[in-house]
Structure prediction request, 370 residues.
Amino acid sequence: MDCEEAFMAKTLFGIQPRILIMLLFLGIVPMILCFWIIFSHNEAQYMEMKGKELADLAEIATLQLRNQLQAASRQMDGLACNPSVLEALAAGNRELQGKEDALLAQGVEQEKTWAGLPPEDPRVRRIVGTPLSAYLTRFITIHPTFREVTVLNRLGAAVVSAHVPDHYIYGDSKWRDLVINSYLQRGAYISDIKRSEFYKAYILEVIVPVFDSNQALLGMIRGILKTDYLNAIVRPFCFGQTGQAFLIASDGTIISSRDVDLSKQVTYDFFEQVKPKLEEGQERSFRVERRAAQARFIGVSQTSLRDAFPDTNWFLLVEQDLQEVEQPIAGLKGWAVVIVIIVLVINIGLAVWFSREFTKPLLDMHLEKL
Prediction:
């Protein structure tokens, strides 16, 4: 009886431990390895696919913004062909003949007091009280993305404007050369966004030069776009709970997004981390994280706004909370754990049953010998 009890103890109540461990190993380990291989491979593929998706959205947003800004410049180009505009520029330039230096100095002095002139001042009425001024006002009504349109002579002095302009004279010869070169190379000059104390708002300039038949400069047409124009382009790019597009200035200030615009002067949380990658332009998608905020998955466009409009210095990106991006994978991993537990329980039961079945004949033979 002592030998029988010792044998029963070694078999764990009729279960052979080695057989049980072997069956569990054959049933569980391959399944765990398969899950690990599948998820490690598919997770990398999924993140790559998601990165391309965000980058493609950023590309679409960038192209739309670029095309809309170019469309605004073409509207300015249309004004450059208007006979009334050409006549006003010709008349303004005739006044400059032989006395450009004197009139330029006079314009600089007038610029110093321009903001304080009342609307009824003759110098103001000369610019805003003409039939062409009424036409430009009508133009703004038809194209509400414009806040102001002003016609400038070849020295940059205001000749006609829809409303009282914020300046009487604009820039110097270097500025005019910049506008002309940008127009000839890219079809438009788009300025960076800047704060105008005259309008008490942020403004964006679209300027096109006007040439005569001999390609001599007659003047320029300056249009001021409302920043809401940018919001209308960028804000529709939102998806999921956290996915959205951001248009960011060179100092990190958010120009436009789903929830923020320039009126709030908010700096993009991850700007210091993403700026080097945005400037390099090598990676189209990447993740960033910071202790004080959740991690983000970011996609950037292959097309750069600064290639079309170098003076804008803007960055456009599309981001989504990393946790939301990884949620489908996390859900599958959770179900995989549940499946592993269920299969483990089933395998334990089967292993115990098979172990007892394999062990029972051997046990009976051994007991008969005893």
User: Anything to note?
Assistant: The chain has a mean pLDDT of 81. The two ends are 9 Å apart (CA to CA). The chain is about 55% helix and 20% strand.
